Amino acid sequence: MTLLSTHQKKLLQGLLRFIDKSSPTQQKFNEIVKKDLSDVQGNSSLENRKSQWEYLLKNAVFDLAATEGDALKDENTKYYTQLRNRLDLVLTFTEHDACEQNLPFTVLQDLLETQTIASCSHIFSWIEERSERLTEGLVPQKGKALILLRTLNDLLRRLSKMGSTTIFCGRILTFLSGVFPLGERSGVNLRGEYGPTWEGVQVPVKAEPEHDETMADAKDAVKEEDKMQVDEETKKPALEDKKDDFYNTFWSLQLPFSKPPLFAQPNTFDEFKDAVDKVIPVIREATIKERAMMGHRAGSSASLKRKREPEPEERSTVTEYFFAKFLTSPELLDLEIADTHFRRQFLFQLAILLSHLQTFTKAAKATWATTRNRSLQMDFTLEPAQAEWVQETYAKVIEEFKSTSPNGRAFTDTVTSILEREKNWVKWKNELCTQFDKEPWSEEVDGHKAGLEEATRKVREKLREPTEDWPHTLGSESLTEIWGMGYRDLSDLQNPFRAGDVKDFVKKLKQEDGKIALRQKQLAKIAAAAEARAAAQAKTKAVADVAMEVVPPATVETPASTPAPVRPPASNPAGSPIHPSLPAKPGSPMVAEPATSVPALAPTPTPAAAPATAPAPPAPPTDDHIIKLEEHKQRWSWLALRTARDHHLGHFGKIGTGDIEQLAKEIEAEKRLPKGSEELAVTEEVGSASPMTSTKVLVAGSDSTTAKVLVTGGSGYIGSHVIYTLQKTRRYKVISLDNGHNSHPNALSRISALSRSELPSDASERDIDTTEIESHSCDLTRRDEIRAVFEKYGKGGIWGVVHIAAYKAVGESVEIPLTYYENNVTATLYLLQTMQEFDCTRIVYSSSATVYGIPPTIPIPETTRLKADSPYGKTKVMSETMLDDLCHSDSKWSAISLRYFNPAGAHPSGQIGEDPKGRPGNLLPLLAHMAIGRVDAKTLQVFGNDYPTPDGTCVRDYLHILDLASGHLLALEALDANSKVFESTPDARYRAYNLGQGKGVSVLQIIDAMRKATGFDFKYEIVGRRRGDVPDLTADPALAEKELGFKANEDLAVMCRDLWNFQSKNPEGYGKW
C-alpha cells in the first residue's frame, strides 16, 4: 500500500470514529470532508485519489454490512445508524467530486443485494430522505439513473415473492414515479419477454401390466359370486386415468399462457384449441353447480350447527394468494375448480391470451407490424377460422365471468377495462414508448408565457366584485312574466280553464289583466328603445354638422315613434233583456251609444259615459294583441254573469255594469249569513260531473236510519272503492268531497250505476237512495269551502268522516315538501276544526306504513316507533299525532288510523279502478299503462338493487283494493258508541291498525306477476336508490284481524288480474281529463 493510501485510510478511520460518536449535521459533514480532502490534495493525480477514496469507502460500507447477522440479534444495535453514517459519507465525498458520480448508486446496488428485507427497508428509508441530493443532475436513460432504476427494480422482484411487503413495494413505486417521468421507458421491457416459462405439472401415464398365463389362471380361479366386485374395482383405474388425462390437459394450458411465442410453432394453436374446448365445459358446469347451491342456501333457513374453529396450525398469514403449481394434484383439481377465485384466475389468464391473439389477425397486424420494435412481434398470423374460434371463445369467457358470483357483472367490467388498457400499453410499448407528457398550460400575457394563476388573475378579480341586482324577481324572465299574468300554481298551467264558480272567472280575468300589463310593458320598452336610437342618430348628425362647419337649423325635428292607431274596444250595449246589468253576448249588434269601458276588475264600477271636462291622460300603448285580450275579458265577464244569473240575480243591482269582482264579494258575503232553518230537508241539484239530477239530503231531525258518512277524496282510487263498499251495506248515505287533483268525476257515476245494478228487484226507496252520491267540489286547504259543505247538513248532520284525500308520492314529496305539508297536514287540521264546530266527532284516517321509516323488525307491529324518512311519511305522522292529541283532550272524539302501503287491483267488473293523472307514481298502474301503451317508456327504472332483501329490490306489502276498502268499513263501524275496540285505551278513543297481508313482495316479483297477467314483456334497468325509500315495509296485521275482524284474502295474482281487467276495458281510464 502506498504512503498516500495509508494516509487516506487513517483520515477515513478518524472520520468514521468521529461521526459514529457525535452524529454531525450535514454542514459539519461538509467541513470535515473538505478539510480531509485538502490534506491529501497535490500528493498524487486526481484519478489516483478518486480510486483510493472509492476503494476505502466501499470497504467501510461492506465491512459493516458483513456484521448484519450479529446486529439483528441485538435489540439495542447501532448497526443501522452506523450504516446511514457511512452512506452519508459516500454521498458527501461524491458531492465534493472526490469520487465518481455513480459511486453511491453502485454501493447501494451491491448493498441491497446482500441485506435482508428488513435491512433493505432501512436502507430505502435513507434513499427517500436523501432523494433530493441523490437525484440532483439525474438524466433519465443515462448513467446513475439507469443504475438506480435497475437497483430498485431488482428489489421489487425480490419483494414480489413475499406476501407481507405491499407497503414497501408501494413506497418504491411512489419514489420511482416521483423521480422518473411518467413516460420514461428505461424501466419498460422492450424485448418482448413474457416472464418465466411454465415448467409443467403432469401425472405420468401408468403402464399397463403384462398379460401372462399366471394372471389368466388367477382370473379363471375367481369365484362366480365375486365377479361383480371385481368388475367394480376394474372401473376405478379407468376413472382415474380419465381424471389424470383432464389434469394434464388443464395444466398444459399454462405453457401458452406464459409463453405466447409458442404459437409460431406448428400445431401449437390446434393443441391449445382442443385443450380449451375440453376445459371450458368443466368450468361452466362448476359455475352452474355453485349457482344452484347458492340458490338453495338463499331459500333455506340458516344452519344452527356451530362452525368448527380452525386450529392454530391451520392459520396462514397469506390468505389471498396461492401457487397452484405446488398445491395441486389430480385429487385436488375438482376442489380447485369448485372455487370461484380459482376459476376466475384461470378465465382471466385465458381472456388475456385470447385478447392478445386477436391482434394477430391479418387485418390487425397490418396496423402495427411495420413498427421498429420487431422484437415484440412473433411470426404468427391467425387464419380466418382460427380468428372466428378465438372471438367465440372470448365471448364465452366473458359470459362465464358474468355468471360467477359474487358481483359477476362488476368483475366482468373490471376485467374488460384492464384488458382494454393493456392493449394501449402494448401499443405504446410496440411504438418504442413515444413521449406523451404535456407541458403545463400557459398563455401569452404581456409578451411572456404565464401560468394558469397569472393568466386568470384579472378574471378572478372581476368575479370577486359585487354583482348587480338581478332584474327578474322570480329568478328568470319567463317565470316573472308568468307570475305577472296571474298564474299562481302549476295547476293553472297544466289544467285548462273550466267554467265553475264566479271566483274562477275572477281569477281568469286577473290573468287576462296580467297579460295586458305585460304586453304594455313590452310595447313601452320597444318605444323607449326607438326613441333612444332616434336621439343617438340626431346627436351623431349634430356632431357631423359641427365638424363640417355647417350651421344647423334652429329646430331639429326628431321623428318620434307613433304608436299604432288605437282601436276602441267594443262598446257595451245599452242593456240586456235579462237584466240591465247583464251585457249582451259578445258579437251581438251594438247600440249606437258612447263607448263604455270594458268590464273591469276594479272594485268601483266604471260609469257608462264620462264627461270630457278635462284632457284625457295619454293612452297606454296598445296593439292588436291587447285589443284581442280586451275582447277576451269582455267575453269572460259575460260568461260569468250568465253563470251567476240563476242563483245570484239579486246581486246584479249592487255591482254596477259588469263588475265581476264585486259580484264575487257579494256572493261570499251571502254565504256567511246564518241560515233560516237547519232542521228542514234541503234539496240540492248535483253538478254536471254526476249523472244524478237531484236528491234529497237527509239532515239532523230526519226520521231515516241512514247515517251520513263524508268521504274525502271520494272520486279517487281508494275513495271510490270505499264508497262502493259503504253502499253495499245499504246503511250509509255517502257524501263525497274531492277537488279533482288526481281523480275523475266519472268514477262516482260508475259507482252509483254499479251499486244500483246489485240491488234486488224489490229494493226499498231507502236502499235506492243509498246508491246515490252527494258530490261536492271542495279544496280541503280552504277552510271556508269545508265549512260550506258542513253547513248544508247542520250540526250533527254528518255521522262520521273517512279522510282519504292526500298527496301520496314519496319521491315527489322529497322534491316539494312544503306542498305536501300544506295539503296533507293543514287540510287535516282544517277538516278536524270544522268537524268539531259541527259536532261530527268520528273519523277514520287513511294513514300509511311509511310512518315507520326503516323499521327495526319485519313484519311491522303497531308498537313500532314512528320515524318516517320522507316528507310524505312525516305528514302522516303529524296527522296521526293530531288525532291522538284530540282524542285525549276530548272524550267525545273517536278516531282510528289505518296504516297500509300499497293497495292494488280494481273491482272485478272492471268498472272502477285506478286512473291517475299523467304518469302514474305507483308501480302497478305504471306497469299497466306501459302494457296498454299510455306511457311512452320502453324501460322501467328500478330504484336500487342493493337493499337487504332477497333480490336486492324494495319489498312492500300489497293488498287488494277491495280488502282495503273493507278495512275502512270495519274501522268506521268500530267508531260506534257501543264498540269494544277502545277498551284497551280507556283514556282516549284512538287506535291505529296495520292493514296488509303480512307478506311482502319485491319490485322484481311484481314485474314478473304483471308480465304473467298482461303477457307484456316488461324491460327494466337498475338505477340508484331514491331518497325516502326504505328496504322493507311488510305489515303485521294481527291486531286488525283480532280486534276489527279484518282479513286480506286476495293474493298478488288476483290484484294484477283485476288491474289489467280494468285497464284493458278502459284503455283511456275514465275518459279524457
TrEMBL record:
Gene3D superfamilies referenced in this protein's UniProt entry, alphabetically: NAD(P)-binding Rossmann-like Domain, UDP-galactose 4-epimerase, domain 1
Known cofactor(s): NAD(+)
Keyword annotations from UniProtKB, A to Z: Carbohydrate metabolism, Galactose metabolism, Isomerase, NAD
Any one of the GO BP annotations: galactose metabolic process
Functional pathway: Carbohydrate metabolism; hexose metabolism; Carbohydrate metabolism; galactose metabolism
Comp. bias intervals (Pro residues): 602-621
GO terms of molecular function: UDP-glucose 4-epimerase activity
Keyword Signal in annotation: no
UniProt-annotated stretches for the region Disordered: 293-313, 556-624
GO cellular component: cytosol
Catalytic activity: UDP-alpha-D-glucose = UDP-alpha-D-galactose
Pfam families membership: efThoc1, Epimerase
Domain NAD-dependent epimerase/dehydratase intervals: 709-980
Record has NAD as a keyword: yes
NCBIfam families named in the record: galE
Family: In the N-terminal section; belongs to the NAD(P)-dependent epimerase/dehydratase family. In the C-terminal section; belongs to the aldose epimerase family.
Role description: Mutarotase converts alpha-aldose to the beta-anomer. It is active on D-glucose, L-arabinose, D-xylose, D-galactose, maltose and lactose.
Official protein name in the record: UDP-glucose 4-epimerase
Organism: Favolaschia claudopus
